[in-house]
Amino acid sequence: MLLNTYEPWKFAFSAETDFENIKKDSYGIIGVPFDSTTSYHSGSRLGPVVVREASYGFEKYNTNFKSDLDTTFYDFGDVNVVPGNCQATCNIVEDTVRELLDLNVKPITIGGEHSASIGVIKALTEKYDKLTVVHLDAHRDLAFDFIGEKYSHATVMRRAHEFGVDLVQIGIRSSSLEEEEFVKSTYNIRTFKNKDVHKHMDAVEYYLATVETPIYLSIDMDVFDPAIAPCVGNPSPGGLFTSEIEDVIKALAFKEVVGMDVVETATDRLGENTAVTAAKIIYDFLSLI
């Protein structure tokens, strides 16, 4: 395992890690404490620590979904990142996820900046012939490059698209003209902007129900309104509410979800709103899947 031996916390309710007896078809959490391409609010490298700590505020019974958290999952600690080198870090994440997949463990990644998803998605596209990425974000992240860099928090979904995935982008409310033109030029990117979610959640749920491929769920915390999750890399007003994110997760509960990430929690303060909300997303996911 290409993981840091220092494990600051394990996510609440995670199983004891015994590599000789890992349960097949389980989930495995890894942290990616990296934020070297951050262009506005830095600090997401501390996300894995504060999100794990926040997870201890929840009880095992999920009252919203009337379900007990009985999914088997492990917390393997943090990946050894290369500060300042996004491509090298993505390669390490990719290799780590391959090792998880060899154990028949599906990855849950806590960021760190969104660039970490590049390595995860690349590894998954090697395992699955076809993959749909359900991407919750304020931004499209479809730039070909950002300030001359192809590996960046702003280029994640462009790299993913190059790997051959279908994209469903939810909560979008900020993008460049070039990104909008790129979306128009493709056939396999479906968009639900923030107002679509606010007014027509039923259409979002219906569309997700029609997806027949394996699904990877990628959640940038700036998809939330800044009133709910203020400490993110690039906050943008007009975001989604917790109940809307819960509805998306519920819509995926009976689909083949082969991994997820929750990224861009940028705070060093324990118990901060963004960290607690990020932990709740992972908790909800594990309560339903």
UniProtKB/TrEMBL annotation:
Binds 2 manganese ions per subunit. Belongs to the arginase family. Agmatinase subfamily. Its EC number is 3.5.3.11. InterPro entries: Agmatinase-rel, Ureohydrolase, Ureohydrolase_dom_sf. SUPFAM superfamilies: Arginase/deacetylase. Mn(2+) binds at H114, D137, H139, D141, D220, D222. Pfam families: Arginase. It comes from Methanobrevibacter millerae. PANTHER family: ARGINASE/AGMATINASE, GUANIDINO ACID HYDROLASE, MITOCHONDRIAL. CDD domains: Agmatinase-like_2. GO terms for biological process: putrescine biosynthetic process from arginine, via agmatine. Its cofactor is Mn(2+). The gene is speB. Coiled coil: none annotated. Keywords: Hydrolase, Manganese, Metal-binding. GO terms for molecular function: agmatinase activity; metal ion binding. NCBIfam families: agmatinase (TIGR01230). This is Agmatinase. PROSITE patterns: ARGINASE_2.
